[in-house]
Amino acid sequence: MSGSYYVPAASHWPIAAVVAIALMAVGAGNELAYGRGGMLLVFGLLGIMWVIFHWFADVVRESRAGLYDEQMDRSFRQGMGWFIFSEVMFFAAFFGTLFYVRAFALPWLDGEGAKGITALLWPDFTASWPLMSPPSSEVKGPTGTVDPWHLPLINTVLLISSSVTLTLAHHALKVDKRFTCLNWLGLTLVLGAVFLVVQGIEYVEAYQQLGLTLQAGIYGGTFFLLTGFHGIHVTLGAIILAVMWLRLMNGHFSGHQHFGFEAAAWYWHFVDVVWIGLFLFVYVF
Q: DSSP H helical segments within the chain, as ranges?
């Protein structure tokens, strides 16, 4: 394949992906608007999972057959880089919402800044963060906030540790120490799983003991928006790493050819960095 560029055969997977995404989008819209799009949403999600599984299986078979050259490797790296960039912008939008509310919207409602006239809406409102008393009496704020130095700190240690163990697994793979790589990668998965369990415990405590829910004003909304989407990304990252573990068990990858593993590591490290931002700006400050 030296000096050539691999062009795959015509595939039906892009069409199948479009159909699955359309089903999911229509189902989600109908569920939100009319409360009766659940089945379409489920079928769409299952369809997307089915397409991803089989499409990636085709890519793995082509790669192991030696069909890919250096240009394909660069294409995969660029594609993964752009995907992570899109995820950066995804979380940037949510962090931007948090900063906008804290730096502009709340002070305006308290009579400060260029749009302080909005204080006429709720003249008795006093801005503070975390917002425990929303301006409207129709919205009940939380009775307390999550202690950052308890469960969130434990989760921070877990995720930082998982980045270390994943890096050790990557270095072991580079020198073809497959058994060592499997052990470190397995430990990374355990740390990720414990993180999700601790986050679940935190959510239960927030709902039952602190009154911190999605309906608890802007503080509750931004808290669960940011931490919830991050939890979904941790789950996806753990699934990806689990697939890498299974591939290693089946003899895939070598010290000089393992971009699938490397891409999974990029994604996991990105998720860990996002958590550090969450810990600082959602829990601590």
A: 13-34, 38-64, 70-100, 106-109, 151-174, 178-209, 217-249, 259-278
